[in-house]
């Protein structure tokens, strides 16, 4: 068996290492080969390794051995992520996010081969040059693509994004998940410093993907989705390093998408106060803080009034939480945070269920159980379906017993949109 050679894709070895947040030096010590060989493996398009060497990598990275011999389809680099990395974010953390997007893209590509995902209908204005529409017009184009009237509030933004062909993954991090004593970024620095990012994935980079960090704030969730849609509409290009002005553009796009200025202008209260603005927050589904900035940027209020309202927002105490309104605004608990459904729905359609143990036991899938769980953990399940978190796999065999699961019911898309699933 030792002489059996297996063709391995170097990019897969690098992806597994980056996802587990391990340094190349630590891998060298554990794998038992030189730094030069580790570099050669990761940089080679393909390389022949012995059966036992592949098994060693599988055990080290907690990935099925078949992962390393599968050809990567999505290759997203950190420079192609549509977000502005905080100054405190390390290169390793950015590589981790890019790797996660790449693997999510491969997972989506496999589903699309089995059952076509919704076609991409997100408009892009990034290549229109001097004729590029204003932010208000660009947001209007996206609302039109969603089938909304100019004065119609967005009910479920995450659903609308997925209906236009942009899958959403809300990443939940369980205690101890992805931890390694050989992590490239030790200690508390591993805590992520971003709310979300977007990218184009797939062999031809033609599928938009939105990835969010889980938060229980419905206001922050909706704004982050709208912000990432802004990047996809305004800044879609093959190689992108988002700058500060483009971040501001995405912010302004997000508020205009959620609450068109032409629609909210007639609804502004005569006496401008935080409590009097609460009905607009409730109707249009954005935070008071975002609403204040939107009114200022749109010229509905002047900078002095905006500063006064913002100061009040961050000085008043919410008696329910003990925090300022800037942290927990009035109405903070009146909605549940939106959650995606498309990915789980397609997994159920393609595999007859979305149980992670069942999926991990399939030879056709190349991903470890904990990564599959991360893809699916916060996806809205079918009514009556329970799910349980899955711990990181300890070995390379992927031998997990399949859990019995009933066949999914098929519902009309319009009924699903309105929540009328049985």
UniProtKB/TrEMBL annotation:
Residues 383-422 are annotated as: Disordered. Residues 200-291 form the IrrE N-terminal-like domain. InterPro entries: IrrE_HExxH (IPR010359), Lambda_DNA-bd_dom_sf (IPR010982), Rad_response_metalloprotease (IPR052345). Residues 412-422 have a biased composition (Basic and acidic residues). Residues 390-403 have a biased composition (Low complexity). GO terms for molecular function: DNA binding. This is IrrE N-terminal-like domain-containing protein. It comes from Mycolicibacterium aromaticivorans JS19b1 = JCM 16368. The lineage of its organism: Bacteria, Bacillati, Actinomycetota, Actinomycetes, Mycobacteriales.
